[in-house]
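note to self: dont lose this again. the chain is below, predicted strucutre after it. 258 aa total, dont forget to put it in the shared folder this time
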Amino acid sequence: MSTLSETITRAIEAARTAGRPALVPFFTAGYPSPSAFANTLREIAGAADVVEIGVPFTDPMADGMSIQRASHAALEAGVSLSWIFEQIEVLEGRPSTPLLLMSYLNPLLAFGYEALAARAAQVGVAGFIVPDLPFEESADLREALAAEGLALVQLVSPLTSDERLAVVCEASGGFVYAVTTTGVTGGAGGLGDSVGAYLDRVRAASPLPVCAGFGIRSAADVQRLASHVDGVIVGSALVESLERGAAPATMLRELAGA
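---
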């Protein structure tokens, strides 16, 4: 029987086999409102290959203003990690799309690694992305998740050396998250001229699929990256779409060029 971690990898590989990059959207749990969470998740999952659900946090240091606003609003509305697990557990009509949680470290530490892994596996969450967890300090969480068959997706950046890239990619689960810039999410600077060469370098080092995130806002961005990665991650553009009250599935299909 395959693990939950492997369902992520398989979903991305299936998209590649179909001749397109996998679409991995991110949205903040409980935004635009906690009562809309179930419908928002179903809509997004129906247009995606893997879904990242953001756990709101008071100091989202890797995120730009759009996701910071969403995080603040969700916290004000009482959204927590336990609440997210409860909502996923009772979700009706859930698509088969693998679900990841993207969280800063403090909520996970407060939950406890073993309890976190067991609860995530119980509700069918396939893994975690933790942007403020240094690789050198990630072994305890990675081992706790692996014991339940869950992934700890590792992040790399254009500043990651070849030597470190090999080690980090080897330790990753599900896929490797290639951050396209050295700034925060949602930047308006676009993708740099050297992004293709950087992503090719990550792909050559990784035994897993590689998905690019940060700064991807348009179908043209997706097209530009399509030959360099196995999937694309879109966060701020989707959160801004939700902020405007737009239908998320429509936005995602336009992004994918469908």
